């Protein structure tokens, strides 16, 4: 039986001490580094980039129909030192003034009393109607119509001279070629508008100079429209066209409106029929929107009959959106405020809300004006 070798614990430890003592590097002089924990650095998650909010601005454009001063109208406005038309617009001035831009068709030239006032068929009106329109909130007048040349060059010169005197922009008839070439522009809320005006004719009277009045001629209109399109955001064209006393536009009106839409015109304001014709929204060849009202009827005149005394204020909002370095425009929220012109109990003519003068006409007029534009808001 093999003997079992037993090594005591003491003997084993002694051997270990001897072994370490024979080492070339003394173990007692070497420091054993402690373990160092690396710091935990929390890296925040990258937030997604914040998309800039679109920049949206809105400008409202309002327009009224024919201001055609028959002798009954200006005689009723006579005062000791001239004429006072302020009361004519007193009730509707708050509506006009709430718009960013309001325009009017001054159909009778304001050549002033100095050359003699006159009525149908050759009109000449007092200067004071210009002051009243401005105080009522009108920002620009159009003057291209079939009565522009009624009293000749003198009436045009006097009229334009007075518009300049009171600081009222005008378009449609001019003093010179340079004056005509200067396209009238107005800006509201960072949205710029160009204004042009043309007439179908001047009752057979031939102008002495081509700049005295703008005629409807697409070949001549196109360069001016293109210039306006390049220089401003919105192009507004006033057209004196159509058939008198007809409640709907004729084929010539609709074809011309579509041709202007195809050229990029944004807003078309129609005059001349002396009665209301409904608005519509057209689409141009490039997919653009064009808002057109074919006739705004009479706003203030001495004509007789409910249809010829019913007019109104048409309005449209232009919405400009800037997003991702692109700019877009949209025509929104069309509105119509029907009015009625009448002789007041105090004597002067006045323009009042239709519901005040002829409440029974509100429903048929609302239906008539919204037949092609169901979204048209009728206000009163």
From TrEMBL:
Residues 60-303 form the Capsule synthesis protein CapA domain. The keyword ATP-binding does not apply. Keywords: Signal. It comes from the Bacteria. PROSITE patterns: PROKAR_LIPOPROTEIN. Coiled coil: none annotated. InterPro entries: Capsule_synth_CapA, CW_Biosynth-Accessory, Metallo-depent_PP-like. Residues 1-29 form the signal peptide. Belongs to the CapA family. This is CapA family protein. It comes from Exiguobacterium marinum.
């Amino acid at each position: 039986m093999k003997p079992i070798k037993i090594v005591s614990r003491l003997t084993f430890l002694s051997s270990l001490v001897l072994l370490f003592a024979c080492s070339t590097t003394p173990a007692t002089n070497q420091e054993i580094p402690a373990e160092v924990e690396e710091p935990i650095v929390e890296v925040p998650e990258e937030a997604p980039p914040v998309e800039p909010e679109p920049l949206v601005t809105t400008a409202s454009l309002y327009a009224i129909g024919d201001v055609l001063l028959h002798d009954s109208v200006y005689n009723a406005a006579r005062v000791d030192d001239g004429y006072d038309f302020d009361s004519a617009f007193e009730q509707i001035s708050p509506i006009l003034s709430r718009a960013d831009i309001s325009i009017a068709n001054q159909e009778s030239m304001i050549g002033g009393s100095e050359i003699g006032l006159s009525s149908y068929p050759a009109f000449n009106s007092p200067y004071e109607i210009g002051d009243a329109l401005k105080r009522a909130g009108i920002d620009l007048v159009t003057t291209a119509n079939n009565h522009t040349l009624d009293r000749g060059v003198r009436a045009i010169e006097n009229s334009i001279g007075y518009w300049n005197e009171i600081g009222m922009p005008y378009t449609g008839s001019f003093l010179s070629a340079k004056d005509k070439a200067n396209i009238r522009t107005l800006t509201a809320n960072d949205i710029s508008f160009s204004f042009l005006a043309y007439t179908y004719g001047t009752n057979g009277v031939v102008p002495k100079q081509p700049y005295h009045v703008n005629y409807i001629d697409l070949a001549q209109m196109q360069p001016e429209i293109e210039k306006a399109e390049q220089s401003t955001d919105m192009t507004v064209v006033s057209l004196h066209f159509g058939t008198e006393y007809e409640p709907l536009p004729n084929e010539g009106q609709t074809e011309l409106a579509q041709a202007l839409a195809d050229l990029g015109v944004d807003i078309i304001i129609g005059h001349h029929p002396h009665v209301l014709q409904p608005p519509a929204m057209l689409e141009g060849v490039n997919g653009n929107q064009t808002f057109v009202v074919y006739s705004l009827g009479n706003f203030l005149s001495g004509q007789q009959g409910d249809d010829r005394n019913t007019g109104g204020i048409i309005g449209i909002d232009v919405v400009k959106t800037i997003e991702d370095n692109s700019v877009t425009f949209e025509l929104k929220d069309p509105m119509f405020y029907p009015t009625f012109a009448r002789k007041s109990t105090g004597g002067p003519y006045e323009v009042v809300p239709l519901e005040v003068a002829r409440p029974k006409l509100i429903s048929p007029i609302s239906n008539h004006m919204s037949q092609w534009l169901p979204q048209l808001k009728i206000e009163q």
